[in-house]
Amino acid sequence: MSKNIRTPAVDQLFEAILSLKDSEECYIFFEDICTINELLSLAQRFEVAKMLRNQKTYLEIAEKTGASTATISRVNRSLNYGNDGYDMVFARMKNINTSK
């Protein structure tokens, strides 16, 4: 049974994140709200997801990112059975990058 993440506190956090205007504001906010290791773990998972979508092997991903096979497997499970959040963001990032 998964925990319900839709709480007023999480709503407030997402509102705060959505209020950030640029990368520099993201760095400022996330350095305050996360430990360095937490932030690096999030970035690592995002990189793992990109590499999985680009058909990289677990071995290639582990070597490049330093992620454990357990982390890679969890990210892969999210990509295959999750809410399509990664793919939504990847599509938007692709549109942003191609429009520049």
TrEMBL record:
Organism: Herbinix luporum
InterPro entries noted in UniProt: Trp_repress, Trp_repressor/repl_initiator, TrpR-like_sf, YecD_YerC
GO molecular function: DNA-binding transcription factor activity; sequence-specific DNA binding
Lineage per the UniProt record: Bacteria, Bacillati, Bacillota, Clostridia, Lachnospirales
SUPFAM superfamilies: TrpR-like
Pfam entry (one): Trp_repressor
Name of the molecule in the record: TrpR YerC/YecD
Entries under PANTHER family matching the protein: LMO1763 PROTEIN (PTHR40080), TRPR-LIKE PROTEIN YERC_YECD (PTHR40080:SF1)
